[in-house]
Amino acid sequence: MNQTGDFTEKEIQQLIKKIEPIIYYSLFQTKPELRDDLKQHLYELSLNTLKNVRFKEPKSLFCTNEEEHAI
């Protein structure tokens, strides 16, 4: 499963929901007058990362094909 920004709208919403606590924690560490700009910037940065970064399946502890058994 190699994906380069092939996320559906629903998947993007789920991923954003998972990082929202981190975004809100960052906002509370910022001056109140700067929070709106920072919030927008963090959401944009997150969306750009999802669109541009290539994600791969993590390697398993168990080998799934014969080529992985070769030493």
Radius of gyration: 18 Å
Which class do the helix and strand fractions yield?
Answer: mainly alpha
Low-confidence stretches at least 5 residues in length (pLDDT < 50)?
none
Helical content class:
40-55%
Strand order of the largest sheet: 1-2
Work out the strand percent. 5-15%
Number of strands: 2
Span between N and C termini?
25 Å
Counted by DSSP, the helix tally is 2
Q: Main β-sheet, in a few words?
A: 2 strands, antiparallel
Order of helices and strands: EHHE
Given the C-alpha coordinates, what overall shape results?
Answer: elongated
Provide the residue-averaged pLDDT: 80
List the helices and strands and how they pair.
Blueprint: E1 3-4, H1 9-28, H2 35-52, E2 54-55
Antiparallel strand pairs: 1-2
Helix pairs in contact: 1-2
Task: Describe the structure concisely.
It is built from two helices and two strands; from the N terminus they run E-H-H-E. It has helices at 9-28, 35-52; strands spanning 3-4, 54-55.
